[in-house]
Amino acid sequence: MGLYLAVPIGVVALLIAVSGGATLSREWLSPWQRRHIVRPRLFGWAQLLIAAALGLRARLRRHPHRGRRGRQRNLPALVNPL
């Protein structure tokens, strides 16, 4: 993944982390989420986890199914052909 994708993904991860922190500390939710979220503390932890995963993904900047040199790894098939 190039820098042109890593930077926007990092910014989105930061925004999600800030929202998760606000949800955990003050139990604040965005106005469009207030009707749908029943457990705000769990939602805040989930947002922090998603932000960490996105930030890690932006930091690694490597395709998950490719090796170190860019070759396609042999992955198990999801569907067994007949």
Contiguous low-pLDDT stretches (5 residues minimum) are: none
Quote the beta fraction: under 5%
The number of helical elements comes to 2
The CA-CA distance between the termini, in Å, is: 35 Å
Domain unit count: 1
Estimated radius of gyration? 18 Å
Shape: extended
Proportion in helices: 40-55%
Order of helices and strands: HH
**Average pLDDT taken over every residue:** 79
Q: What is the number of beta strands? A: 0
SS-derived structural category? mainly alpha
Largest sheet: none
What does this structure look like?
- Helix content is 55%, strand content 0%.
- α1 (3-26) packs antiparallel against α2 (40-60).
- The longest helix has 24 residues, at 3-26.
- It has helices at residues 3-26, 40-60.
- It is mainly alpha-helical and 82 residues long.
- The model has no long low-confidence stretch (mean pLDDT 79).
- It has one domain (3-60).
- The protein has two helices and no strands.
- The two termini are 35 Å apart.
- The chain is extended, with a radius of gyration of 18 Å.
Provide a brief overview of the structure.
This protein is mainly α and 82 residues long. The protein contains 2 helices and no strands.
Give short descriptive properties of this protein.
55% helix, extended, mainly alpha
Layout of secondary structure:
Layout: H1 3-26, H2 40-60
Helix pairs in contact: 1-2
